[in-house]
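Quick one:
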Amino acid sequence: FLTATALFAAFLRGEFKNVDAYIAYLGLDLRVSDSGNKSGRRRLSKKGDPEVRRLGFNASMAACRSATWKPYYEKKIGEGKARTEALTILSRKLAGVAFSLMKKREEYDPTKRLGVAPQT
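Output:
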């Protein structure tokens, strides 16, 4: 409930063109450190509200144990991502789904979004 409220409050703070703008507002976008042929580390920009990022990360820790989101999380782990990195990616995904639901004023339906059984 607290995470949903925080994401909704962030949604109401601005007029976002697309999901990428919303993700950037939350500070979950990547900051790239490239120069010429050098490919540097990618890090979160962390420009948004740290409390919303914390709540999103906690939500992703709970979601990675649910039947709906566990395959997505395990896929990221299988790709060689670290646990924290996979949870951050899941947090971005959850924020994107929340943005889409708020923008379209729809209710959450896991079969529509992920094509899986309606378990949470």
